[in-house]
């Protein structure tokens, strides 16, 4: 260096460097709409927080890959059951067998998962409480098995992972809720109750309902013909105290609780009472309801099904339901 010259200052970095991760600190990723809520209360350590607003499922998959690369181990899902389903479906590609903890900031119509496992209070205070509890290690934790839905006749179609599957008159009730109930401003548990009530009234009035189906659980007889309603879930409780799946004890890795009712229904009021009280089903004779606990269900349907609030086409060869693996849901 010539005499009198001054050393040049290094250029300013284009982005601020990421600070080293403190021992025990959690990296938090938020999937949702940052513009619709203020996240300023979490700005005390921006290196540990990432925000994303993916508008498509492809963008969501890329977001989760980025989160995994950057060590995000606590994922906040802002939305309803459908948003959670999309996140659960995309997680294996990004995280493999080591998914992050998931917190639910419920802003959807039904929010079944949030009501079962607990949710983060919307807004900056709730998120700040979540961040503080995460760093202190005081989050409440619950293990949640997911319900995997795949199309064996369409190998290029990505499987889904959700929590609650419904077909038959459940699909009709969901369509009615979307068209009339949600449009009138009624949401959450009341909307679900009204949709179920409308479905029951249709049955009582004798209107034809349900769907043609072939239902084949791995540990029970195959049922074919018209089904009144078909439900399946990996949850062990629902909201409003409603539990139509009987009280079957867990058997090994069997995690799918299911309900299958023939159409037309025999003894509708007795059937509905048994569903409401959580009683086990009868012998499985024609026209009666069956409940069970299985590892795998093969199902062919003539009509659409609903997975966590969204309609899907079962395809020509039907779908297979199985255990999609477990995740950890956390709350404050």
Automatic annotation (TrEMBL):
GO terms for molecular function: kinase activity. Keywords: Kinase, Transferase. The keyword tRNA processing does not apply. The keyword Transferase applies. Residues 58-153 form the DAGKc domain. Residues 1-36 are annotated as: Disordered. InterPro entries: ATP-NAD_kinase_N (IPR017438), Diacylglycerol_kinase_cat_dom (IPR001206), NAD/diacylglycerol_kinase_sf (IPR016064). Residues 10-20 have a biased composition (Pro residues). It comes from the Bacteria. Pfam families: DAGK_cat. PROSITE patterns: DAGK. This is Acylglycerol kinase family protein.
């Amino acid at each position: 260096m010539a005499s009198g010259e001054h050393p040049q200052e290094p250029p300013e970095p284009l982005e601020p460097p990421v600070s080293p991760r403190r021992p025990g600190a959690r990296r938090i990723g938020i999937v949702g709409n940052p513009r619709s809520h203020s996240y300023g209360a979490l700005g005390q350590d921006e290196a540990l927080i990432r925000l994303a607003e993916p508008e498509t499922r492809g963008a969501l998959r890329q977001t989760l890959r980025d989160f995994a690369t950057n060590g995000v181990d606590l994922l906040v899902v802002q939305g309803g059951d459908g948003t959670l389903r999309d996140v659960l479906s995309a997680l294996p590609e990004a995280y493999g067998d080591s998914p992050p903890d998931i917190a639910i900031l419920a802003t959807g119509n039904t929010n079944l998962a949030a009501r079962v496992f607990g949710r983060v209070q919307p807004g900056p205070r709730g998120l700040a409480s979540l961040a503080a509890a995460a760093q202190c290690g005081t989050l409440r934790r619950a293990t949640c098995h997911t319900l995997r839905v795949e199309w064996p006749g369409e190998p290029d179609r990505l499987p889904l992972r959700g929590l609650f599957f419904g077909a038959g008159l459940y699909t009709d009730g969901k369509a009615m809720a979307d068209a009339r109930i949600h449009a009138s401003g009624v949401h959450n548990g009341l909307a679900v109750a009204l949709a179920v009530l409308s479905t029951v009234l249709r049955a009582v009035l004798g209107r034809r309902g349900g769907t043609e189906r072939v239902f084949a659980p791995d540990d029970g007889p195959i049922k074919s013909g018209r089904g009144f309603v078909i439900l399946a879930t990996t949850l062990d409780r629902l909201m409003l105290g409603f539990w139509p799946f009987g009280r079957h004890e867990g058997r090994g890795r069997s995690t799918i609780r299911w309900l299958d009712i023939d159409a037309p229904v025999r003894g509708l009021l007795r059937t509905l009472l048994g569903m409401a009280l959580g009683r086990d089903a009868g012998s499985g004779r024609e026209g009666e309801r069956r409940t069970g606990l299985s590892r795998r269900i093969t199902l062919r349907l003539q009509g659409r099904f609903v997975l966590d609030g969204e309609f899907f086409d079962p395809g020509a060869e039907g779908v297979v339901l199985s255990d999609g693996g477990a995740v950890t849901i956390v709350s404050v």
